[in-house]
Structure formats: structure tokens, C-alpha cells
Specification:
The chain is an alpha+beta fold and 487 residues long. It has three domains: 5-171, Beta-Lactamase (2-Layer Sandwich), CATH 3.30.450.20; 232-318, Helix Hairpins; 327-478, Histidine kinase-like ATPase, C-terminal domain (Heat Shock Protein 90, 2-Layer Sandwich). Helices cover 53% and strands 17% of the residues.
């Protein structure tokens, strides 16, 4: 029952509200009880002071003694809820008014002697101070009394006024009953209202959960409803929708990747099978025919191996499992070695390769093998798309931002509509391009994507600076220092 968020929110809300209401009820009752007690004490003190004034006036009359004056003022004391008693200095009763009339019957007022006996301690306290209060327990629900010492012609007396606490207790009992009724009722109404508000507030969450439950790999294009973008739930829905968009893009890329990989692998496999079947279809063939078939099988096997290696590298890179081996090396030397490695390939294509180096001993920290592969991939593409008698220029320079490797060819350029996609995996602007490169590119549309990943891994980037009918220029930007420490 309490496993749902609505129930837990309602329970917490009700618990906190119950604690607040209980504290409020206790505080309110304590305040009412204290205020009622203070009113009772003030009323007793006022009555006692009025009695003392009359007693003092009567005792100043030379014709009356102090005891006669006490008898006179107590006889005139007319209150139906209190009694006046005057004690002498020894604690003996000098005079007392009649007990309260309404207090007889089922709730009898205690006798004057019994009442005086209960006031013995109060009389001693009053003799040492200005006045003293005491509460006496009785069948009547308690009696509150005040004792005030007074001197009258020339003896010393103590005036006591006692009042029943029945009315005060009745008022407090009514207050308790009111609190016992209102607090649970308010708690019940508040808990029902809290449950309703929690249910209404969490309704968008329920709708989001139901919609999210229907979203799968087949319908990642669906999105969660966003009732209010400024609310917490609205921002959560936006974040979730953004996550779905990234997943949709990732799934789409994965599907395209699998389809393109299957297509690229199918072609060399089909060629290998075809050549082997042709070679085995005749019982007797010449050595030249066998060598020709084996050469084709070898070329396609080499191409197949490169595709598999590239796919494996990209898969490890996507999973974050590829750890480059960062070391210190001279970037100019590595670039020079790459230029010399492809010079013979460029010559076979009738392409002139020129390498320009403006500075020596350009120290760089990174994975030299990956940097070499990135450069060879770009050079391989430049050789493939540069016609005979064309030129390729490789430049290395250093500026404030880091190192810049510029590779310029005089090929036919990249179509404008293809330029935004050239770094995507398996993308080829020329679907019928040659597969005879042997510098490390797979010929499957993975060379530029791998080169871009290598640059990013080293904290740099590759940009297509310009491409038109006069040729293309790629620029590799690398930081002066690598992004990771060795080890």
C-alpha cells in the first residue's frame, strides 16, 4: 500500500502535519490553562484586596475589636463560588464566610476546619511574604486559595479567599474536547486533500511512465509529453526526450553501421568465393591462371583484414576500451616518414608528392602509431582522388594554437552536398572509387572517420579547409602537448 510515491508523500505529509497539529494543540492548551490560572489568581487577589480594605476600615473603628471587624466583613462577603476566612497570628480561625451555596450536594465544599488544616503551609508562607497561593485537592475538583497578611488594630491577621476550580476545569475540559475533535478532523481532511494533491501532481509522472513503457527500439521516435517546460517534471521530460533523441540517433547509426559493414564485407567475400570456385571448376588450369586467381584472393583477403581491423578499432573506441600508448616523439620526423612511405605509391599513380617542413624537432606527445595512421589515411585519400600529373603538398607548421598539418591535392574536389558527411563511417562521395590503395586505408569509407577519431583522441581536430574543382585541402590541428600523461 505504501510502495507508491503518492502513498508515501501522503504519509509523510500527514505525519508532519500531525506533529505540527499535536504541538499546536499542546501549546494552545498550555496557554489556555496558564491564562485561566492567571485569571483565577488575579480574581482571588482582587477579592482578597477588597476584603482587606473593608476589614482595615472596620478594624479602625474604636468601637469594634479586630475579631468583631472580621466577623462583620465575612458576614457581608457574598460570593456564590468562593469563601473568605480570616486567621489570627496563631493560625486560628477568627471568622469565616458561608461556604459557596452551589457547591453543596453532589460536590460538597469541605468544612472550614478541614479547609483551614489544608492551608497551614500556605499561612506560614504568607507570613514570610506579601501573599501566597495554594491549590487544594478536593471532591469538588480542586480549590484555589490566596493568603495575604494584614495588620489591624494592632494585631496581625491573615486574610484567605478560596475559590472552587470547577468552572475553570470545565472550561479547560471543553477546550480539550474541542482539540480532540478538531485536530483529528483537520488531520483527516488534510490527509485526503494531500492525497488528492499528490495524485494530481504525480499524474504527469504516471503519464510519462506509461508513455515511456510503450517506447522501444521500434518506436524511438516517440517523445514524452511536456506539459510545462519550466516545472521540474517538464525539465525531466525534456532531459528524457533528449536522451531518447540521442538513443534514436545512436540506434540509427548502429543500424546504418551494421548495414554498411555487411555490404562492405559481402563484396570481398563474394569475390574470394567466386575466384576460388572458378579456380576449382576445371581439373587442369595453367600456372598463370592459378597465380592470377590467388593474387585476387590475396588482395581481397588483405582488404577484408583491413576492414575487420578498422571495425574492431572503432568498436573498441566507441566502448571506451581503446587505450592509446602516449609517448614523446618528434612530429616532423613522423610526418616525413609517412611522406616517404607513400612516395612510391604516388609515383605509380603519376602524382607528384611534395613535403614542406618549416621547423625542425617539433616535439609532440601522443600515440605515434595512431598519428602515423591518421596521416597515411589522408595521404591515401589524396593519392586516390588526384589524377595523373597532379600534385600533393604536405606542410607542417607551428602556431600559438599548436601544430597544423596541411594536406593539399589537385584532385576534382568533393561535391558540396557530400562535404558535411565525409567524416561519417562508410560514407563515400564516389561510390565507384578505387579499392587498390595499399597505405593502410580499407577502401570502405572508414579512413576519414578513423582519422577524425584519432585527432579527437589527441585533443585536436580535422577540418576540410576548402574543396572545389581545383582540389581539396585538409588541415589537422593538434595541441602542442597531448591530452593524457604517459601510463
Amino acid at each position: 500500500m505504501f510502495e507508491t510515491m503518492r502513498a508515501r508523500l501522503t504519509l509523510w505529509y500527514t505525519g508532519v502535519l500531525a506533529l505540527v497539529l499535536v504541538i499546536f494543540a499542546f501549546a494552545t492548551y498550555a496557554y489556555l490553562a496558564r491564562a485561566a490560572g492567571e485569571r483565577t489568581d488575579q480574581s482571588l487577589a482582587d477579592t482578597a484586596n477588597s476584603l482587606i480594605s473593608n476589614f482595615t476600615a472596620e478594624s479602625n473603628d474604636e468601637e469594634q475589636s479586630g475579631e468583631d471587624a472580621a466577623t462583620e466583613v465575612t458576614r457581608d462577603f457574598q460570593f456564590n463560588d468562593r469563601q473568605a476566612i480570616i486567621f489570627d497570628e496563631s493560625g486560628n480561625i477568627v471568622a469565616a464566610s458561608d461556604p459557596p451555596t452551589y457547591a453543596r450536594g453532589n460536590n460538597p465544599w469541605p468544612s472550614t476546619a478541614s479547609l483551614a488544616q489544608s492551608m497551614a503551609v500556605m499561612l506560614k508562607s504568607a507570613a514570610q511574604s506579601v501573599r501566597a497561593f495554594v491549590t487544594i485537592q478536593s471532591q469538588h475538583g480542586g480549590i484555589r486559595a490566596v493568603a495575604i497578611p494584614v495588620r489591624a488594630s494592632p494585631a496581625k491577621y491573615t486574610v484567605v479567599v478560596a475559590r472552587s476550580l470547577h468552572d475553570q476545569n470545565e472550561e479547560l475540559e471543553q477546550a480539550r474536547r474541542a482539540l480532540f475533535v478538531t485536530v483529528p478532523l483537520a488531520l483527516l481532511v488534510a490527509s485526503l486533500g494531500g492525497y488528492f494533491l499528490a495524485r494530481k501532481s504525480l499524474a504527469p509522472v504516471v503519464a510519462m511512465g506509461q508513455r515511456a513503457g510503450r517506447i522501444g527500439a521500434a518506436n524511438l521516435g516517440e517523445r514524452l509529453p511536456v506539459p510545462n517546460e519550466r516545472s521540474e517534471l517538464g525539465r525531466l521530460a525534456l532531459i528524457f526526450n533528449d536522451l531518447l533523441a540521442r538513443l534514436d540517433l545512436s540506434f540509427d547509426q548502429q543500424r546504418r553501421f551494421m548495414a554498411d559493414a555487411s555490404h562492405e564485407l559481402r563484396t570481398p567475400v563474394a569475390i574470394v568465393r567466386g575466384e576460388s570456385e572458378v579456380a576449382l571448376s576445371q581439373d587442369v588450369r595453367s600456372e598463370e591462371e592459378y597465380r592470377e586467381s590467388l593474387a585476387i584472393v590475396q588482395d581481397e583477403g588483405r582488404r577484408l583484414s583491413r576492414i575487420v581491423e578498422d571495425l574492431f578499432m572503432l568498436a573498441r573506441a566507441d566502448a571506451g576500451q581503446y587505450q592509446p600508448d602516449f609517448t614523446n616523439f618528434y612530429l616532423d620526423e613522423t610526418l616525413g616518414e609517412c611522406a616517404r612511405a607513400v612516395r612510391s605509391l604516388a609515383a605509380r599513380h603519376g602524382v607528384e608528392l611534395k613535403y614542406e617542413q618549416k621547423e625542425d624537432e617539433l616535439l609532440f606527445r601522443g600515440d605515434e602509431g595512431l598519428i602515423r595512421r591518421m596521416i597515411l589515411n589522408l595521404l591515401d585519400n589524396a593519392i586516390k582522388y588526384t589524377p595523373a600529373e597532379g600534385k600533393i603538398c604536405v606542410e607542417l607548421a607551428r602556431d600559438d594554437a599548436g601544430y597544423a598539418i596541411k594536406i593539399t591535392d589537385s584532385g576534382k574536389g568533393i561535391p558540396l552536398e557530400a562535404q558535411p558527411h565525409i567524416f561519417e563511417r562508410f560514407y563515400r562521395a564516389d561510390k565507384a572509387r578505387s579499392r587498390n590503395g595499399d597505405t593502410g586505408g580499407s577502401g570502405a569509407g572508414l579512413g576519414l572517420s578513423i582519422a577524425a577519431w584519432i585527432a579527437t583522441e589527441h585533443g585536436g581536430r580535422i577540418t576540410l579547409y576548402q574543396s572545389d574543382q581545383h582540389g581539396s585541402t585538409f588541415v589537422i590541428h593538434l595541441p602542442v602537448e597531448g591530452m593524457r600523461d604517459e601510463g
